[in-house]
Design a protein that fits this description.
about 140 residues, four-stranded mixed beta sheet, alpha+beta, globular
Length: about 140
């Protein structure tokens, strides 16, 4: 009985703390050879910043809330898994464990290609400085 109460108390405390924690947003802008703009946006929340929303958008440089994004207009990656970006001319290559849904109304001339990777490939890309590591768009997750 006491064990059950402790588990419930811990869960309630964890849920309360997670809701109270501020969301940290960071963004980076990419510009193509044709001067088209693409916005890479990252938001972290949770007790230790282990919840992440990464959005690739061609519309505006607005900061997205963890539940406020448009799957029809944006590439949305929700989860704390490695994502690496390679920008070449008018294309970006997104290397990730899980592909995002292809938006039906993507407002950008950028060509976005998603490539699924495994853990071994992730370790190689992490050391390659020619890739943008989404976790480094923010200098630190939680201050």
């Amino acid at each position: 009985m006491i064990r059950s109460l402790l588990v419930v108390a811990f869960f309630c405390l964890f849920s309360f703390c997670q809701r109270k924690r501020d969301i940290i947003y960071c963004s980076q802008t990419l510009v193509s050879q044709n001067l088209d703009t693409l916005y890479l946006q990252v938001g972290y929340w949770g007790i230790n910043g282990n919840n992440r929303l990464f959005v690739i958008s061609g519309d505006t440089n607005r900061l997205y809330h963890k539940n406020d994004y448009d799957l029809e207009r944006d590439y949305v990656f929700k989860g704390d898994f490695p994502i690496f970006i390679k920008h070449e001319g008018d294309s970006i290559f997104v290397y990730t464990y899980l592909k995002a849904l292809e938006p039906t109304i993507f407002n950008s001339q950028f060509n976005v290609k998603q490539i699924e990777i495994d853990n071994k490939q992730s370790l190689v890309l992490r050391r390659d400085e020619s890739f943008i590591n989404v976790d480094k768009v923010c200098k630190t997750k939680i201050d």
